[in-house]
Specification:
10-stranded mixed β-sheet; 13 strands; 26% helix; alpha/beta
Length: 305
């Protein structure tokens, strides 16, 4: 089944013309991650965070390598906590602003920014600085709006090992291009919150249920998302107290961005910023074993932008 067939099922279900949940059957070669030693990962450092986005994307061919003219794009931050940017609980607003602007410049017809927040959504959108950052672009094609409860839909996950069906946000699964922009931070249960973990922001239902097998469950959910690019925000990372944070002493400023079309390689590299190894993160291991990307960094071409 090609992605267009899956989207036809989504449209039919949304219109009430289909009773069963859409089934996602795409194989690993269509998931956005590369499957061999050709994986490329870009790392850029600098204090101008908006300029840093362009820098980190340049070795990958720029945003135009991922966003095509007319694409409906989702830029998915971590925006789940009622925290200000300096506390490193959410993706930095300037990183999101520059990513959205780059997608628009590449010809996107629409760029949607959203998250299923853990704290009060209005407070998260405001205090994270992300909503205002998107508005400041001044382009009607770019929006950062609260979730619409009418857009939750069941999706069958044919390749899932632990999760066979879940309620997901329609705009996420039907996007032409999904750009995953998580912050790198500590997490009490998962050890780290990186790209795979950021999928919880498009999940409905009782998200706490996946904690029993969190690594495999997150990998399963990620097979449904049309992720073409992962940009990990390590401009400042949360070393302790995650995922909520709140203590400035737990934050370390690195002024770093990581970008790759390979979501597994991106998470694997970000793990090393915490003095850990990729194999210590269960979602990275599960995604690698499912063929979603490369976990062995010795087989990844790492470019300093």
């Amino acid at each position: 089944m090609q992605r267009r067939d899956f989207l036809k099922q989504v449209a039919a279900w949304s219109a009430g013309a289909a009773l069963s949940a859409p089934i996602f059957r795409l194989g690993p070669a269509a998931l956005g991650g590369t499957l061999d030693s050709s994986s490329i990962l870009s790392v850029a450092k600098g204090q101008d965070y908006e300029a840093l986005v362009g820098m980190v994307l340049k070795p990958l061919g720029g945003m135009g390598a991922f966003v095509k003219k007319g694409d409906k794009v989702v830029v998915k931050p971590n925006m789940g906590w009622d925290r200000k940017p300096e506390l490193a609980a959410n993706t930095h607003p300037l990183v999101i602003k520059a990513t959205v602007r780059a997608a628009l410049d590449a010809g996107a017809s629409q760029v949607l920014v959203f998250d299923h927040c853990c704290n009060d959504a209005r407070a998260c959108y405001a205090h994270s600085g992300i909503q205002e950052a998107v508005r400041s672009i001044g382009d009607q094609r770019a929006t950062c709006e609260l979730l619409d409860n009418r857009k939750w839909m069941p999706v069958q996950i044919a390749r899932g090992k632990k999760v066979k069906q879940w309620t997901l946000y329609k705009d996420a699964v039907e996007a032409d291009c999904y750009i995953n922009v998580p912050i790198a931070k500590h997490h009490g249960l998962a050890k780290l919150t990186l790209g795979m973990k950021n999928a919880m922001g498009v999940m409905g239902g009782n998200r706490g249920q996946i904690h029993q097998s969190i690594g495999q469950s997150l990998a399963d959910i990620n097979t449904v998302l049309p992720i073409k690019l992962t940009i990990i925000d390590a401009t400042r990372i949360l070393l302790r107290g995650g995922p909520t944070g709140g203590n400035p002493a737990d934050v370390k400023v690195l002024d770093t961005l990581i970008a790759s079309a390979d979501p597994v390689a991106a998470d694997a590299y970000a793990t090393t910023l915490f003095g850990m190894e990729p194999r210590q993160i269960s979602s990275t291991v599960a995604a690698f074993e499912m063929g979603m990307g490369q976990m062995d960094l010795s087989k990844v071409k790492i470019v300093s932008a």
